[in-house]
Prior knowledge:
Mean pLDDT: 91
Keywords: TPR repeat, Transferase
Helix content: 55-70%
Pfam families: Sulfotransfer_3, TPR_16, TPR_19, TPR_8
CATH topology of one domain: Rossmann fold
InterPro entries: P-loop_NTPase, TPR-like_helical_dom_sf, TPR_rpt, TPST-like
GO molecular function: protein-tyrosine sulfotransferase activity
Radius of gyration: 32 Å
Protein name: Sulfotransferase family protein
Shape: elongated
Low-confidence stretches: 631-640, 679-692
Amino acid sequence: MGNVSASVADGVREELARAGALLEDRPGQALERAEAVLCRVPGLPPAELLACQALRRLGKAQAALPRLEVLARPLPAVPALWWELAHVAMELGHDDRAIDALERLTRQQPAIADGWFLLARALRRAGRGQDAWRADLSGVHAASRDPELVEAAVAMNDGRLDDARARLERRGTRHPDDPVGTRLLGEIIWREGDIAAALVLVERAVAMAPGFDLARDFLIRLLLQSNRLEEALTHADMLMQSPMKAAGHDLLKASVLVRLGEQEAAGDIYERLLAQQPAQPQVWQNLGHVRKTLGRQAAAVDAYRRAVALQPTMGEAWWSLANLKTVRLDAGDIAAMRGALVTLAGHDGAHGEDVFHLHFSLGKALEDAGDHDAAFDHYDRGNRLRRAMIAHDADDFGAEVAAATATFTAPFLAGMGDGGCPARDPIFIVGLPRSGSTLVEQILSSHSQVEGTMELPDMMMIAGRLQARVDEGEFPDFRTMIASLSPADRTRLGEEYLERTRVHRRSDRPLFIDKMPNNWQHVGLIGMILPNARIIDARRHPIACCFSGWKQHFARGQSFSYDLTDIARYYRDYVSHMAAYDAAAPGRVHRVIYERMVQDTPGEVERLLAYLGLPFEPACLSFWQNERAVRTASSEQVRRPIFTDAVDHWRHYEARLAPLFAILGPIVDRYPDVLAAVAAGHAITCAATPDN
């Protein structure tokens, strides 16, 4: 402190320390003490800086600015000075001055993330968007070395989520505007299963640092999981503008486009990436999926074969070929897949998904070759591997279905009275996968008044949110929760469904199809919130349907299908629930029996259209000429006229399907009239199973 005596210097330091402690909560007192020190030691830099800090906190940035600029001339190497000058300049709208101060600060302290993030804000305000983006990225890079954040990330990756969360919450009290810590906390909460809370945090992280590419990437994935597709596309478009170009950004946008049904646009992205770098098996596979959905079978086959040529162990690409249904894998393909299994055998389970996909693929190839015993063995191995990876509790699921069955009785429905959104737009096609639902969808979407969309998750999400109110203790049981819904509540829920699904409607056709098969669980809810919607139950012979579902690997969502006992119990729950709803609301659901549709297509189509109140149109009988995108496992089968060769295909395996017969015996015996029998009071009595 220059010529100031040691005793005076010590006193000044103590006084400045006391003033600094008052800065955040009592800036007026801090200013008084700093000015008192300046009276004793005029121009003292620490006191000047403290006085300027207090002035800004008192809303007097205009008074602080000239003093800071004077102070900065002889002290260009003091980071705290540039930090304060930047804040003051930004508050006064002097963005260029703030940018200059922050560029000096980040040159001096490049490892301090806060400086980069503040610089990004200043640059963005000045209209320098790309420079701001780069500053945000530099801030993220600097934060990656922060010991607190590193320790929290290690705890998260080790599965110590409580520890990681506690560390970040403590940090958040000290650094509430930390985008990297906020995003990391969002990921932890997502791993804990609370996607809604995670979304709030990750959105906040992106708002704080718009150039934080990893946070925006994660946000897009969360939005996809939440089916907020238009928002996901907006963020994907923004991510594509990043100065740090990455193929991953293109792939993420393509995945959003696929979910939106924009297959052509997604295919354009894949083709552009492959033109730049053709040796990308995953991109070839993705392109194959798009081409398959668009009905370009030969081009899809070419893409899948390019994928397996580049990566012979790529199980999903092999399965995608097999899953075209109309493609037969030959002896060379079978040898290649067997070789791939040998290659993967030494990888300690690291490629489990490739392995089970290969078993499903070999099952299909050997089935087509007529080797049914070997085919069943591979299907069985693939299913066992897949079943070990997923969670499905048939008892819990059965209890949920029973609760819904007991709720939506005729007296209950009558007591609830009118309510719900009166729109007639939706047509729900429900049932089990592999029951002929895609065929029904293709027939109806060939009508000029009906638009086909896809398997929409929105009704299941609404139902899941209502069930969560029971699970979280707000209501004692499902029936009480449903009974609490007022007519206005039901109208609001119906309108919410229509709003959520609007993004998938691309034409002015008055009706649209939601082909999510699992919605059979929610027919009672559908009837209450959309009383004028139509519900079509697509049903197939129980053994044929269950066996076909068991040997089909679904990309997601059908956790019951990988065990013969599980899928039989699921079918039994479905039949019982639909029978009870038929009794409670006669005529509400129209049933399409697959075998009858195959035998008498014109008659079944006529009855179907009459239920919907639609006039007959010849295009419904030439449905295979409809060029709309089809995303289900039956996509290629519905692009040709109805065939009958699959109706009794299960009989090749009858001797090995004992679990299905044990559980479904009475349902098999009465099919397809089991519903009439149940409605007449003849209970379905099923053989006991080990897990009943």
